[in-house]
Amino acid sequence: MIETIHLTKKYGTFTALDDLNLSIGEGTVFGFVGQNGAGKSTTFQILATLMAPTYGTAYIDGVDVCKEPSQVRRKIGYMPDFFGVYDQFRAEEYLDFYGASYGISARERKELIPQLLELVNLSHKADSYVDILSRGMKQRLCLARSLIHDPKVLILDEPASGLDPRARIEMRGILKELKTMGKTIIISSHILPELAEMCDEIGVIDQGSLKARGTVAEIEKQLQAKRLIQVQIADAIDEARRFFEDQAFVSELVVKDGKLEFLFTGTEDNQIELLRKAVAHHLSLVSFKHVESNIEDVFMEITKGVEDY
Ligand SMILES: Nc1ncnc2c1ncn2[C@@H]1O[C@H](COP(=O)(O)OP(=O)(O)OP(=O)(O)O)[C@@H](O)[C@H]1O
């Protein structure tokens, strides 16, 4: 449903997007995660036909964004990261205005707009002026706007940014509902856990290229070649420390809260062997376990070495 082929964008000599190849199936909710400046908005603006790539192209539902932008626009709902709302409108009028600009008849709009307001939990604000709505409400109104022509594909650039936890949860609920309606959604965020919960797949973008892609579990697995192991020993911790320091695939060993922690880069078989040796060495092992990396750790690991700015 969404495909990018060698998508590249240069601003002068600076490469913001570097040979991005992505393929997102119909009905998928795809989370596009990256630090500030990673290239998320650039990708989305190209997908939304608002900017031409320097090289490569993208297809939405089989239609080339560069060659047939107006056809693409009918298929997509785009929510930019910064949006202007027309403050002098009431919420309902605002949607009516956009509906009309998409050529939706007055009769259809009358039926559709209350449904959209309900979907984004704004029915009670239908008559309120846009400028008095809270940030979360404005964001939901903007989402309703992007849905007015019933697009197959939603391109949502940080829809939950700047929202408080409650408003984020509300936004997440709406997105889940859109998923059940069969929409294909690409959504960006720099907050990985937020996306992890509602996305079928995640792509991690960094410095304009895709660093990892898959389900959250798959991405975590990609990094598990380097596992953090924690060992609890009943006594003789110095002896245990010397033992583990001498073993293959063990590095960065530290003692933390009376337990040994180290990185292990061997395979699962290597790990079984290590454990056997530790037992044979008569270490008084209480426990030997992986420290689960949480999704934030995974993100930091993938984008390691890049300054946040
Ligand atoms: N018009 C422009 N001219 C020059 N450089 C630009 C322009 N637009 C974006 N960039 C640069 O391209 C890179 C990617 O920007 P982009 O907005 O796509 O990142 P992003 O991942 O959406 O970041 P954020 O989360 O901060 O919105 C950044 O280094 C940015 O400074």
Automatic annotation (TrEMBL):
Keyword Transferase: no
Domain of life per record: Bacteria
UniProt-listed Pfam families: ABC_tran, DrrA1-3_C
CDD domains tied to this protein: ABC_DR_subfamily_A
InterPro entries: AAA+_ATPase, ABC_transporter-like_ATP-bd, DrrA1/2-like_C, P-loop_NTPase
Keyword Nucleotide-binding: yes
Molecular functions per Gene Ontology: ATP binding; ATP hydrolysis activity
Membrane-crossing segments per the record: none
Keywords linked to the UniProt accession: ATP-binding, Nucleotide-binding, Transport
Residues covered by the ABC transporter domain: 2-232
Recorded family membership: Belongs to the ABC transporter superfamily.
PANTHER family membership: ABC TRANSPORTER, ABC TRANSPORTER, ATP-BINDING PROTEIN
The protein's name: ABC transporter
